[in-house]
Amino acid sequence: MDDLLANSAGELFTRACPPEVARAIRHGGSAAALWDAIEESGFLDALVPEAAGGAGLRPIDTLPVLLAAGRFAAPVPVGETMLVRAAFAAARQAAPEGPVALAQPVAADAAWRARAAWARQSRRVLVPRGEAALLLPRPALPGTDYVNDTAATMTWEQPEPEAALEGGTDWLVAGAWAELCRMAGAMDRILEDTIRYAGERVQFGRPIAGFQAVQQQLSVLTEEVFAGRMAAQLASLPSAGEASLDPLRVAAGKARIGEAAIRVAAIAHGVLGAMGITEEVPLHLMTEQLHRGRLAFGSEAYWHGVLGRACLDGPAVTSLGFVQERLAPAEA
Amino acid sequence: MIGNLPLAIIPPEAEALRAEVREFLREALPDLPPDRRARSWMGFDADFSRRLAARGWVGLTLRKEYGGAALGPFARYVIVEELLAAGAPVSAHWIGDRQSGPLIQRFGNEAQRQFHLPRISRGESFFCIGMSEPNTGSDLASVTTRAVRDGDGWRLNGRKIWTTNAHHSHYMIALVRSSGVPADRHKGLSQFIVDLSLPGVKVTPIRDLAGDAHFNEVVFEEVRLPADALVGEEGAGWAQVTAELAYERSGPERVLSSAVLLDTWIDWLRTEGPRTPASEALLGRLLAHLATLRAMSIAVTSRLVAGESPITEAALVKDLGTEFEQLIPTAIADALGAEPDRVPPDGLLRTLAYSQAMAPSYSLRGGTREILRGMIARGMGLR
Ligand SMILES: Cc1cc2nc3c(=O)[nH]c(=O)nc-3n(C[C@H](O)[C@H](O)[C@H](O)COP(=O)(O)OP(=O)(O)OC[C@H]3O[C@@H](n4cnc5c(N)ncnc54)[C@H](O)[C@@H]3O)c2cc1C
Questions:
Q1: What is the span of the domain harbouring residue B207?
Q2: Is there a single domain that holds both residue B274 and residue B354?
Q3: What is the ipTM of this complex?
Q4: Are residues B138 and B183 in the same domain?
Q5: A241 near A248, Cβ under 8 Å?
Q6: Which among B288, B313, B316 has the least Cβ separation from residue A256?
Q7: Which of A96, B8, B219, B321 could form a disulfide with B302 if both were Cys (CB 3.0 to 4.6 A apart)?
Q8: Which of B84, B105, B125 corresponds to the end of one domain?
């Protein structure tokens, strides 16, 4: 099942989202063709119950799809749209069409301003505000801005929601999960690309992979990527006996991947020399996802606090007891 | 290149042991202050080991016919994890249970198994490991301690160092050269079970910075070994040692060495310690690491259970795990110092001082950080 999904997701993005496509969209080009291909694959309804016409999968089952989106730096809100569709199905409402960007939750009395990843590529934005989440048309965005485009700030003068969801989903948790899965996928790709480059690039008469200093860096990179992938798997598991995402697992996963991201981005860019900051080499497309991902839906500092308080306010168990009871997988 | 480590779980029958172990520890664990419990698998208490043995929990993976508990790696995982988290003084039987016993069961002959394994399982016979020498550390193949054939037995000369528990142990499994010269490297090495009460064996404890004596120098001068001291095949020592080391890299003992310190700090925060946002966040950070590492360690164990040999993955877990173990004292020191007007309890400060001082050894014992990273690089096809 896992492999099947991973293969078809890999095949989809290989075909529909090679680096030149990701780059063109990032530079303001249309994402319509890419989106149509994703839509056709059926992945976007993966989390929607079968009774409502979806695939009825659990978040952990869909992880391969989100990893693949991250691997290919697909500049569209895949995970976000999946989550939004599932929430609409749960509320027995018709889901909005097309890509839906997910804004970071704001307080009920906050200004009508929000940031959302991949907003430019989306016709609609779901804005969690207070207890509700409102579906708003995406306002016009000025010009193109390569570097900031992946997390545009939007302002609504007179918001006219197309639909509203009342309660039900913790959108900060949901958004954090979508981001962390994408980040884990991006890290996988970074590892592969960096190892390959180190084997090809010759200095001082031999591949740089032959230098012990480089090898040790690449080993640390490997460790962090493996840790990140494990954290993503843990974060995708529901709490015992439930179907939805577990806030504490997502907290641990988002925080651990955020830490990994810092080391991964630094080592990969170091090994590639300055190549990664050129437009031509896709490494920056991957590390951009890491940096944006850390910032979005709570960084390490935020989720660390959530986790620490949960432990201190909970039953007086040891650190191992807490991890074993609250964060470890109950079933694989 | 190594592939993904899929999520694995501890099977329910192994998990079921956890409550039993906790129950046993509630009753049997000596009342030790946290800085003693922080000795973790360096804490020696022969009586405790015998009580554990009487409960059936020494010789965990040894077969029933040899007095062992015949438990699988996951059952062992749960038991060891609970012992370490509680700071139980396990060092007396630790090496016999974890390394020497399984090695004798796998490579020893029937007479060696029947003699040694029941004694290990009863907590009567303690073992130590003689690999390192004054001039042999990471480059283990360079050992110069020598066994020469002498009649139908062997004559042993040389010097081992860093030998944990030699002064408390009955036997050492020593890696020595039995033929050829050091330049032959991996060829001509053998493992011997050396009875440490034999004439010509001199054990000298080496004091550590905490005033404890865990490790020793062991000198062999014309020690006469019987023929059956050789374990496994003559000349196969390198392969045997490699197999032995692979098993010891990814278990809970590579994650939990600072667990007592962490829990002592948590206890303080839960009672009267300063619950600042910074200390809450630090705790969360450590828990996020622990959860991820433990899941990785369990995933590697499931590979071992499946009969695979995940050497690279185990090295990866050990390197990350020891880094985590070393982060704990550093970060907790910072947290305590962040509130200069608060006086942490003495036990917490003593535990911190001990863990902080010993932490450098976590990434040296069992293969140094640089050596492990070299192994990972090999696993990734870089060398
Ligand atoms: C608490 C503790 C208990 C121990 N118990 C035992 C025991 O019971 N039995 C036993 O046999 N041994 C034991 N050891 C010894 C341990 O296995 C060795 O310390 C370890 O193998 C490293 O060897 P070394 O100390 O000689 O360091 P060295 O090998 O001399 O290394 C020194 C430094 O150089 C680096 N280095 C070495 N070679 C390379 C290389 N090729 N590339 C890059 N860097 C390199 C190392 O990473 C390290 O940082 C114990 C050690 C400790 C700390």
A1: 129-235
A2: yes
A3: 0.96
A4: yes
A5: no
A6: B288
A7: B8
A8: B125
What is the reported pLDDT for A241? 73
Q: pLDDT tens digit string along B102-152?
A: 999 999 999 999 999 999 999 999 999 999 999 999 999 999 999 999 999
Q: What is the number of the ligand 1 atom nearest to the C-alpha of B166?
A: 8
- Do A303 and B284 count as a contact with CB atoms less than 8 A apart? yes
The CATH architecture assigned to A172-327 reads Up-down Bundle (1.20)
| Count of residues in chain A | 332
**Which tokens is A25 given?**
């969209």
B193-221 per-position pLDDT tens digit: 999 999 999 999 999 999 999 999 999 99
Give the list of residues 6+ apart from residue A35 with CB closer than 8 angstroms, or none.
A76, A98, A99, A121
The two structure tokens encoding residue B309: 């040999």
Indicate the residue among B125, B145, B171 that finishes a domain. B125
A98, burial (CB in 10 Å: exposed 0-12, middle 13-18, buried 19+) = middle
Considering chain B, what is the average pLDDT of its residues?
A: 95
Identify the CA nearest to B266 among candidates B294, B290, B287. B287
* φ, ψ at B232 (rounded to 5°): 75, -160
The model's pLDDT over A205-240, given as tens digits with 9 standing for 90+, comes to: 999 999 999 999 999 999 999 999 999 999 999 877
Do B366 and B258 reside in the same domain of the chain? yes
**Contact criterion met (CB < 8 Å) for A308 and B376:** no
pLDDT over 70 at A149, yes or no: no
In a domain? residue B27: yes
Whole-angstrom distance, CA of residue B209 vs CA of residue B191: 31
Q: What is the total count of domains within chain B?
A: 3
| Residue B137 in contact with ligand 1 by CB distance below 6 A | yes
CATH architecture observed for domain A2-166: Orthogonal Bundle (1.10)
